[in-house]
Amino acid sequence: MRATLAAFVLILVCVGGAPAWALYCGHRLVSLGETQTTVWYKCGAPDTTTWRVHYRAVREADAFDTLQTTPYVPVVIEAWVYNFGPQRFLEEFSFEEGRLISIQPLGYGY
Questions:
Q1: Is 1 a member of any domain?
Q2: How many domains, in total, are found in the chain?
Q3: Which residue segment(s) compose the domain that 35 sits in?
Q4: How close are the terminal C-alpha atoms of the chain, in Å?
Q5: What is the pLDDT of residue 71?
């Protein structure tokens, strides 16, 4: 009986948690797809900001509906790093065209 109850409570805790693509900044939840302005409001100013360029292939169909790869197009990614202190991970928020596309842990803060 106790094992069943413990398993049930564990399942509720796992299901009730924040999704894997979200992170808490203080008491506010930040999720993928949010704008830079919203993330700034919820988390404050980032500790560091960097930009990098990724090259993405654009695929288009020709007149015979066969896929052809056109030259790569540059995509600018803006990365914000937040240091939440020594008890939490540094987090990197990556933005493309002003929208949050990924949240990556970087190791413990300082």
A1: no
A2: 1
A3: 18-108
A4: 44
A5: 80
Asked if the structure places residue 81 within a domain, the reply is yes
pTM of the model: 0.71
pLDDT, tens digit (0-9, with 9 covering 90-100), for 40-92: 999 999 999 999 999 998 877 776 766 666 788 999 999 999 998 899 899 99
Strand partners, 96: 77, 99
Asked, for residue 2, whether it belongs to a domain, the answer is no
Answer whether residue 7 is part of any domain.
no
Q: What is the pLDDT of residue 26?
A: 85
